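Running this now, will post back.
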Amino acid sequence: MSFLTYFLALIVFSLPAYQIRFHIFGLPTTLLEILLIILFIGWTAYKINKEELCATWLSLKNKLGVSFYLILAWLIISLISCFWAPNFTASLGIWRAYFLEPIILFFIFLDLIKDSQQRKLILKILFLSALVIALYALAQKFFHFGGVWSLEVAGQPKVWRATSVFAQPNFLGMYLAPIILLALGSSQKIKFKNIFLWLVILGGIISVFLAKSDGALLGIIIGVVAYFVLLNAKARKNFIICALFGVLILLSVSPTRDIAWRKISFQDLSEKLRINIWQSAFILLKQNPFLGAGINGYQQLIKDYQKPVILFAPDGQKIISVETHPYPHNLYLAIWLETGIIGLILFVAIIFFFFKKLRQNLLADKLNREVSLAIAAAMVAILIHGLVDTPYFKNDLAILFWMLVALIF
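Update: finished.
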């Protein structure tokens, strides 16, 4: 394996390093971005030196087929969306971090990772990163430091939520959920050498519970269901039996039954806030449903559209919330607002071809079935979590998304 492959592995391990921020010549940047730039320069210089740059891009285009044009179109549409955003400079910075750089890394990843040995290296490094993040979250719990206190039920005491190295608990859930499912497909038999993978899975799940990230938990559950249902007939039968037994046990216990009903019926404070956020986002979207609000436009404009949430605690106390968020807690609504209806259509098309390629791989047996389905389950977790959050619009999450796409191709 080349030095560039190992440097790519370093970037994969350092995905949360986007939080280390500084300025160079007055321009804001992050440690992760510096690593990406170094890799891009090194990769480009290597290809030019070998006189392979044009041939490499042609090879990537042939490998991706229609998806190549869809991805480039999405990149261009997102760039154009910067021009009608309220703040062009700010939107250009967001475009660079969430669109340009992850897609560039996607193409480099696709070129460098060419065999199962290299793929295993990248996945092991990603699992190691997740384990470190999970262990830090567990340390927060047992040594009583860090985390945040969050109001979950109006009129009730605040509850503690783990954050690990991130600023918010949901950031922890969004990062770990797809990685947990990737690890699941790499640990089919309980052997001594797989203890590391089971530590990643169990440590990750416990950390998501400590973060109280409901969207991540839902994504993991649906991803696990998709994985075992599609794995084989025996696994599907055993999983369905175990799942039904587990659901009956949970529903027979009053606390878990009450919590589940409260979440499903959107009675918690966080769910009520989400409904308000979605309603306000649609009011903003009505201003220009075709073009949206532009890159970073939602964050700049929503304060003029979002109405306060008025709740009453059990003791009659009136609670008013006027908080706004960078994105509207829904991946598809966020993409529509940021890139317009064309951007949303292109995103859906990319997802369609992702699963089409997955099916082709399974039929042709090009990848280990467990690994292929684990990659698909990780994507399912992101898409399901996207119903109640935005598991793309962060530096690490955007790269993680495009890594999954690259692994399938």
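The mean pLDDT is 88. More later if anyone needs it.
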